[in-house]
Hints:
Elements: H1 3-22, H2 44-57, E1 62-65, E2 79-82, E3 102-107, H3 116-130, H4 139-150, E4 151-156, H5 161-170, H6 218-226, E5 231-236, E6 241-244, H7 249-254, H8 261-272, E7 280-283, H9 284-287, H10 296-302, E8 308-313, H11 325-328, H12 335-342, H13 344-365, H14 374-396, H15 402-407, H16 412-423
Parallel strand pairs: 3-4, 3-5, 5-8, 6-7
Antiparallel strand pairs: 1-2, 2-4, 6-8
One 2-acetamido-2-deoxy-beta-D-glucopyranose binds next to helix 4.
Amino acid sequence: MNPKQGTMMRHLYIVVIxxxxxxxxxxKPQKERYLPDYxxxxxxxxxxxxxxxxxxxxxxxxxxxxxSFTSRQxxxxxxxxxxxxxxxxxxxxxSYQETPRLKVLLSYGEHAREFLPIESMLHLVKNLTSGLSxxxxxxxxxxxxxxxxxxxxxxxxxxxxxxxxxxxxxHNYCWRGTSTGVDLDRNFDWEFAGKGSSSNQNDEEYRxxxxxxxxxxxxxxxLANRIKFDLFISFHSGIKHIYIPFSDTKSxxxxxxxxxFENMLDLASxxxxxxxxxxxxxxxxxxxxxxxxxxIFDYMAGxxxxxxxxxxxxxxxxxxxxxxxxxxxxxxxxxxxxxxTIHPMYAKLFSYLIEWKEAKIRHLSDPxxxxxxxxxxxxxxxxxxxxxxxxxxxGRYPICNRLYQRRRIVSLKSLSSTFTMYTK
Length: 424
Ligand SMILES: *[C@@H]1O[C@H](CO)[C@@H](O)[C@H](O)[C@H]1NC(C)=O
Ligand SMILES: *[C@@H]1O[C@H](CO)[C@@H](O)[C@H](O)[C@H]1NC(C)=O
Ligand SMILES: *[C@@H]1O[C@H](CO)[C@@H](O)[C@H](O)[C@H]1NC(C)=O
Ligand SMILES: [Zn+2]
């Protein structure tokens, strides 16, 4: 091969790679290194059954609504609501009443191939409900009591059930989208159709024909329209990252911050070292090498003004090659350990929110109790002095006697004498 042929081959090679990238090669099935063992991982029907049996055993604490929110192919998005419902007037979603409890919305299963976050959700729900049967005062019971009496926990357990079904039937463990191949997490009305998404139906980041084209988005908008959430998290896997909004291309250019950015950063830093794993955290547009337009957590922060909104990538290891299942999910035999390792993140999250809310309520009911600043103290003192002086002057030169009042020159000396006289 002469040098010229070598250059040609190289160019051809680059063109082939480039073509693979733009044609969305990674949605196609790949040779997998390992596959899920369904006696450890839950399949779609096992997830539903598990949630049903937990709810049946905890009628006062877990409510299922498996019919209000469904996919394009009419599969349930497995929406559940956890709280202490004892003595609460609860019938159906339309009668959710405003309570002083924190409103938290967690979303799982937006991307079909990411099994792990859903297993983490099941672990959380089992943890909260099983704590209820421990003796009162034990750490398990106290934790469940604290969470369920302070928080209305809303969980979209399976945001994209059609995608998950497609994956299970075809054994294409690279499948990410909905039944029509749309990436649900690019289909929202926040910078929709920006560069951080694709108009190509074969691309794994295909955004769909228009914002909210996918019926699967209804659960998010429907809930966010009715309930004023304090926090939203969209859970994913593939790497250990905690993303703060925004992730879109325009925000990256303008360095845009969401409302409540400082608090979000504070909570993200706490979550980043809440487990034995180390999570990187920061603006999504800085942390991940690419931008993402039309995402759910950007929408919740930017449009719905949810004070805390994150995307959390729960797990990932060093990975190369085109295989998919191992990129997003641990081996079946490691699953339980991984899920247990992640779990303390929820405890830190809930504690932080409960304290944040309590501080807010304290501040509202008694603004002075929250360590008044020195400046405020001086301003207050100044006001008292001025009022005292005016009252004193008034006493000596009543307002009706304007002639005398005008003649008086108010020097510092006379002010102090007036003050002394008045107090005597
Ligand atoms: C799902 O997994 C269970 C075992 O947990 C199995 O009995 C069932 O047949 C599976 N369902 C499908 C549709 O694969
Ligand atoms: C649930 O998780 C919390 C936080 O990690 C823990 O303190 C508690 O003991 C767990 N409860 C049960 C029943 O395992
Ligand atoms: C749930 O609420 C009821 C009624 O307020 C209360 O008696 C019960 O102790 C609560 N349960 C838990 C676990 O907090
Ligand atoms: Zn994902």
